[in-house]
Amino acid sequence: MRREDIADLTAFVTVAEEGSFTGAATRLGISQSALSQIVRRLEDRLGLRLLTRTTRSVAPTPAGDRLVRRLGPLLREIDSDLAELSEFRDTPTGNIRITSVEHAAKTILIPALAEVLPDYPDVSVEVIVDYGLVDVVADRFDAGVRLGEQVAGDMISVRISPDVPMAIVGAPAYLAEHPVPNTPEDLVEHRAINLRLPSSETINAWRLAKNGEAKRVRVEGALCFNTVELIRESALLGQGLAYLPRDQVEDDLARGALHQVLEDWTPPLPGYHLYYPNRRHSSPAFRLVVDALKARLRRLG
Q1: What is the pLDDT of residue 88?
Q2: Which of 13, 79, 149, 277 qualifies as a FRET site for 163, CA 20 to 30 Å off?
Q3: Which residue range or ranges hold the HTH lysR-type domain (predicted)?
C-alpha cells in the first residue's frame, strides 16, 4: 500500500468519526478544503462514494461505514503502538486525554498533575469535564474518572480518592422560610437546586441512608445546572437546598453562609476511580499520570 493511501484512509476515518469536515480538519491540523479534496480523491480512486454530505452533517455511506468499522480499530492500534515507542526516549512524552466529572477534576486531577507536569515539559494532559458516562474508547480518551460503582466491568479501574463526604445545605434565609427537614420525607416541602445528568437526561438523585435503610431521592426545584459551582452559588443566594460534596462548602458552613441539614442521613459516596481499556502496554506519559494519582491517594491515607 502506498504511503498516500494510508494518509487518505486516515483522513476519511477521521471525518467519519467526527461527523464533520470542520472537526476532522481541526483534529488533523489541516484546512477544511484540503481535507475535502483528500476524501474526494480517495473516493475517485476507489470508484465509491464513501460519505454522504449535507449542509448540516456528514455521514458514511454503507461502503464507507464498512470501511470505518474495519479500519478504525486498526488505526487506533497503530496510534497506540506508536505512542508506546516513546518508552525508548529518555523522558516521557505525549498528550493524555481524560474525561472527568467536575469535582474530581478540581480536587484530584489538578493537584496531582500540578506536582508532576512541571518536571515533564513534553507531557500534556487534556481534561474534559462531563457528567455523562463516557465511552473512553469510542470517544478517543486515554482514561476516565468516575465514582467506582460507575465503572464498566471490562475496564481497568484504579482507585484515586477516598470516599467522598456529601452534604445537603441551605442558606439561613432559605431555612428561615422553610422548616428544617428531619427525615427524607420532609424534603417534599422543599425546593432543590439540582444537577442534570446528560447521559440519562435526568436529575441527579440524592443518596440518603441511615441504620441500614438506603434511599435515592429526587427533590423538585426550579433550578438545575450542570456544574457544582453554579449549584453552590445558587444555594448561597437562598434558592433552595443543594446536595454537594462537603469539601466544596466547608468554608461556607464554617462562616455560617450555609447550614447543613439531614447530616445523619447523608453518607459519603464511594471514591473516584481512574478507568481505562485493558491494553497490554501503556505509554510512559500515561503511567506517569497514573503513578501521580496513586501517590496522591497514598498521601491522603
Answers
A1: 57
A2: 277
A3: 4-61
